Amino acid sequence: xxxxxLRDEAxxxxxxxxxxxxxxxxxxxxxxxxxxxxxxxxxxVDRLIFSPLCALSLANYLTLEEKxxxxxxxxxxxxxxxxxxxxxxxxxxxNQIIAEKGIPRxxxxxxxxxxxxxxxxxxxEARFPGVVDSAEVVEENGNYIVTIKEQILxxxxxxxxxxxxxxxxxxxxLIYNKLIxxxxxxxxxxxxxxxxxxxxxxxxKWDFWQKEFDRCIRCYAxxxxxxxxxxxxxxxxxxxxQWVRRSVDSSENLLFHITRAFHLAGRCISCGECERVCxxxxxxxxxxxxxxxxxxxxxxxxxxxxPALKTLLTTFxxxxxxxxxx
Amino acid sequence: xxxxxxxxxxxxxxxxxxxxxxxxxxTFKVAFQNGHDFNHKVGQCAMIGILGIGESMIxxxxxxxxxxxxxxxxxxxxxxxxxxxxxxxxxxxxIRGPYGNGFPIHEWKGKNIVTIGGGIGQxxxxxxxxxxxxxxxxxxxxxxxxxxRTSNDLCFKSELFELEKxxxxxxxxxxxxxxxxxxxFVGFVPDNLLKIxxxxxxxxxxxxxxxxxxxxxxxxxxxxxxxxxxxxxxxENRMKCGIGKCGRCNVGPIYVCKDGPVFSYATLxxxxxx
Amino acid sequence: MDSFILQKDKLKDFFTxxxxxxxxxxxxxxxxxFFEVIKDFHNFSLDLKxxxxxxxxxxxxxxxxxxxxxxxxxxxxxxxxxxxETIIFGIRPCDARSFQLLDPVFxxxxxxxxxLNRRKKAVLIGIACSEPFxxxxxxxxxxxxxxxxxxxxxxxELNSAFYIEVITEKGKxxxxxxxxxxxxxxxxxxxxxEQMEHTSESKIKRKIDLNNxxxxxxxxxxxxxxxxxxxxxxxxxxxxYSCPTCYCFDxxxxxxxxxxxxxxxxxxxxxxxxxxxxxxxxxxxxxxxRLRNRIYHKFKFNIDNFGVVxxxxxxxxxxxxxxxxxxxxxxxxxKEVE
Lengths: 326, 274, 338
Description:
The complex is a heterotrimer. Chain A has helices at 3-15, 88-99, 121-127, 157-160, 163-166, 195-198, 202-213, 221-225, 250-264, 273-277, 284-299; strands at 19-27, 34-39, 81-86, 108-112, 135-140, 143-148, 151-156, 178-179. By secondary structure, chain A is α/β, with parallel strands linked by helices. By secondary structure, chain B is of the alpha/beta class. A 7-stranded mixed β-sheet of chain B has the order 10-9-8-7-11-12-15, sandwiched between helices. In chain B, helix 4 runs parallel beside helix 5. Chain B is globular, with a radius of gyration of 18 Å. In chain B, 50% of the residues are buried. Chain C is 32% helix and 22% strand. Chain C contains 13 helices and 12 strands. Chain C has helices at 11-16, 56-59, 93-97, 99-106, 113-120, 169-177, 187-202, 213-219, 225-230, 238-241, 287-306, 316-320, 327-336; strands at 3-7, 21-29, 32-37, 63-70, 73-77, 85-91, 122-127, 153-157, 161-166, 183-184, 249-256, 259-266. In chain C, strand 4 (63-70) and strand 5 form a beta hairpin. The mean pLDDT of chain C is 90. At the A-C interface, strand 2, helix 8 and helix 10 of A face helix 9, strand 11 and strand 12 of C.
């Protein structure tokens, strides 16, 4: 993927009258970090980057609670569009949100980027600890070339690749206005990584998750970073009536996470953001991937394939075993 | 060490309907169960609530000169206030306080007082009026300007109509929209204020009510010649602890629960607005 | 100042001889450590990097029951009758400095007995930071990796022993109780410790000059920069929950049939319902107001109210923020803005 082509496309997009701003990636403030970039004018496009370090779902910004604040002269009008970079997983999130009528398709200008996978920040920071100076990574022949100041090091891709990317089925965006880069083949469906957990007994599974969720501090980063969590009166936040207590203990934590997992069943597109952002290292993807596998096996359904695809659990079919919509 | 989070229990001795409609207002009269008294200052508030539901910071609508009971006027708004509205005389409520700085009423002795209230905003002004009436000789002229959307929304109607007839205070009531049988001023409270034109000489003005009303009242008071130090109002914010620790009611460096809710306009002007 | 040596293999005995105390130590749980009362040495960890719920959580727990009630009976206080003394072992020097701010908040005109009760009974034992972490900037806010502020004892990890410095009377008592295990330090050991102290400060890589920040902040309250900085923020509570100087809390009632309790739980000013009024009005409706309030609270209002900057430079908010909202970067931008 040619970064100049990406920046040129961004410039073109920002030149269009109806595009109010563009969401992309820019260099982070230190080391291996990458930050979201909000660009309003063509002159700023040189800030935009795309590298294996870009592990952030930009689609999330479209559905955050008060939608992005806009400066006065660019207030939302009928023809407002927002441009954004979308990798494979991001595009599936967008498809799902569009299918759910969460955001109209014509409000988006999607610059699709086929993605070879992103690096797990924890892994690279463990491999190269203490790096404050801005570092860069490119992928070449199955390896990552890491540049830290004048040092150039080569690391096998498998060592640093994020776990979610190892099983990615859709690296090429499924929806876009413009595609920058060559289309890529995904991995075949593979749920081996959750097999050890699946093979545990019910009691063992309960103990496993109880232990994991005991670490949860209810920071809500998982919920806020998930592109598909955008209900405007999230049941887990509601105070009247209050469904989940704010007190932090095993019972409430389990309730919080199990409720969220169920609300994501048939909607989660496995971007892995929840697990990436969790400060307590809780393996949330195991739960979501299990849901994904079950949904595939039980309903032959995959989320985010097509913006016109009916949603799984909120669509009533005459063939459904229940005879009423509820 | 006294535990400031432990509430006392008080019994509701009387409930009075003040305003009906979508956002009804009632006035509770409560008495402490153990004969305790608050000894509060005019303008202070208390955290009242129901164990199991929560607490809400409500201004004490009666003056400390009234011994043996406290009065609170509560508008039905959220979880706690709805539960309070469902109470009956004889029920108990939890109560913590008194909190807040109160009005500097001792500094106002010898001055004329103008209170300008709107809707439920009359409740924090009521203890000022009661205190003055109980210490009538210590204060000058008392003007009570008060308005609500409709005559049904006016609180403390019977008291105010009584006062209107007497000589202790001048009462200027108003409603926003015309009504049959309403012969007094029709219009917004800030406009009524301009019509009445109270003199700023040796006068203190205190206003309470919807934020929009306060904004225009202050603007008009300044036009009438009142200085920043002569204008007082109360702020409100979401509160939980009531004692300046939980952090949420801050406006700039000050906490509304602890350093307020009473502020002079001179202080308010320097606070960063949200 | 007295200093002693405790051989590392005697640490277990050190704790065993203090059994009249409840000893809180960092215990490994996955990749992070939490402070827990010592039960065995199975998961005990001196890993300062991944200390999750920081040491303040021992005196100011995330969930704390204030009192219980039963509809027909007066409320019953909880916890305040505990008598046992506590030791908190393994505190980072930056976290220890947070008590400089937390103490005046919970004392003041209306003292908070829950916090103060735990605080007064706690002996604070710190571990010096000989290898500061990536985002540490304690030296920019008046601290340093070997700071003794707020601590009763400071342990420095040498090769095979701990170098212990006694800072307060409370700390001295601990050494007196463990005198058979602690030997006086030699001048070599003192020199070694001093050298480590000296080099640790130079290992701090990130710095920022915070002079004039309060004045700058006074001038730019309405500046559009806040909207720009807050665009990235996703409104979670990671920065507040991992911050040693954050103390905002919520109070809620929890009931089950006729019984219940009132709890105090950590809250975050970054959540949208933090200042939501029952009427629906929210004085801080968007993330830009909330981010602005957080920075003002830490770098201006705390100084106005207590004379102490509300940040100890631990760097956790920078490391853990999922979208790279970097406090040091933000403060630099604020300094430069017109």
